[in-house]
Amino acid sequence: MKTIRVVAAVIADDLDHPTKILATERGYGEFKGQWEFPGGKIEKGETPEEAIRREIREELEVEIEVGPLLGTIEYDYPNFHLSMDTFLAKVREGTIVLKEAEAAKWLTKSSLDTVGWLPADQTIIKKIHEIME
Ligand SMILES: Nc1nc2c([nH]c(=O)n2[C@H]2C[C@H](O)[C@@H](COP(=O)(O)OP(=O)(O)OP(=O)(O)O)O2)c(=O)[nH]1
Description:
This protein has 133 residues and is α+β, with helices and mostly antiparallel strands. It has a single domain, classed as Nucleoside Triphosphate Pyrophosphohydrolase (Alpha-Beta Complex). The protein has helices at residues 48-60, 122-131; strands at 3-11, 20-25, 35-36, 39-41, 63-76, 81-93, 103-108. It is globular and about 40 Å long. The protein starts with a strand and ends with a helix. Bound molecules: 8-OXO-2'-deoxyguanosine-5'-triphosphate. The site of 8-OXO-2'-deoxyguanosine-5'-triphosphate (8DG) has 14 residues, from strand 1, strand 4 and strand 6.
């Protein structure tokens, strides 16, 4: 099975004391209507950090400060294996504009489970729950 290398950002209000994080709703394709962390595929020659900065610039029109790696999700979809580096991040410059997402929500620790996450993301939600205040 082919492996797709993806990066995603868990954009929080604060890197040391996160109380809310940003979730976005897919506006197109086979996962339309499901919720995820903004990001996308790593391109040739890019480091994961470079890829996540570029993806967030493209999708949300902001510059981010990239924080710690929360984990690398490994998940088997029917047609491919997903390997996704998930970074905690914070907006450093700019105002969020949804260039691709259908919608976005800031979720708190207690509302983390109120959106329909993509199947692969379930595994990291528990970890995010642990680090949120
Ligand atoms: N961005 C993102 N992708 C995720 C998450 N969870 C998850 O299973 N995925 C999957 C869905 C897609 O198959 C893949 C990401 O690919 P993508 O289509 O967003 O990548 P891209 O922006 O480079 O898009 P494209 O140019 O190929 O359309 O990872 C997540 O939380 N965020």
